[in-house]
Amino acid sequence: MTSTGPVGSEDLVRRAVAAFNSGDHAQATDLCELGLKRHPGDPALCHLLAAVLFARSDLPAARARIEASLASRPDNVPALILAGRIARAEGRFDAALQTLDRAARQSSRVEILLERARAFDQAGDATAAGAAWDRVLQSDPKSVEALARLGRLAWERGAPAEAEGFLVRAVAGGGHPAQWFDLGLVRQDMRKFDGAAEAYRRVLEMSPDAPEAAVNLGVVLQEAGDLEGAMAAYSTAYRLSPSTFGVIAMALTSAPSGRLWLDEEALRRSLAG
User: Fold this and answer.
1) Torsion of CA 240, 245, 251, 252, to 10 degrees
2) What is the full per-residue pLDDT of the chain (273 aa) written as tens digits?
3) Cα angle for residues 185, 189, 192 (degrees, 5° grid)
């Protein structure tokens, strides 16, 4: 039987953490709620329950619990970071940044810088996001997330060479399909068609159900003069998503190395085959 004293609270926290880490969120919730019945307002249990509720996307309840935890421990850095993360998920970006600034006054953890950069990103403040991601990279030069975001932001502001440098570093360890896709876009804009094709092929290797990557692969192969390869890529895209037909038809008929298709059904049969 679990004790109802302080040791009992610690035991429930340990069991709830184990359940949470194993993916059993329901059991973790039950254990936290049991603990709070025995120890109302316990900041550790409130914090843990907030984390479980956040993982279950119950944002209002998660917010209430983390606020209860912070009421007892206002300077607890992990709780402040979670509160900032919850506020960001709710779209309350000013509140998220204020909370994270409180955490930053207590600690220099890179996680705080990451959350600030994500908040600026989601708020659509590209200038502040760029500066924040740069701070993350200064603290952690190997941060793949920072490299990928700085690459994307550089491309969006019209600096493809800078973007390519960041994205090449981001994918150096294997990369994520989204990072390879962004690298493909950058190289496509720079008319580095072979490099763009390599990037789009990596996307399709990692995520075979990515019709956008297949379409773009077709476009860069067509631009490079490989119409046979382009048609194969377009066929892949069309089989994955017939809604790509319009952009494929436009690409085939508008590029200098394309073909003029007068019969739409003939093109559909060619792509399907």
Assistant:
1) 100
2) 334 444 467 888 889 889 888 888 899 999 999 889 988 999 999 999 999 999 999 999 999 999 999 999 999 999 999 999 999 999 999 999 999 999 999 999 999 999 999 999 999 999 999 999 999 999 999 999 999 999 999 999 999 999 999 999 999 999 999 999 999 999 999 999 999 999 999 999 999 999 999 999 999 999 999 999 999 999 999 999 999 999 999 888 875 655 555 567 888 888 987
3) 90
